[in-house]
Amino acid sequence: MHRANAVVVTTTLGAALEAFILEHEYCGELDSAVETDRVWMTCTCGALIVQALGPVPVP
Ligand SMILES: [Zn+2]
Question: How many degrees, rounded to 5, is the angle at CA 39 between CA 34 and CA 40?
Answer without folding.
Answer: 100
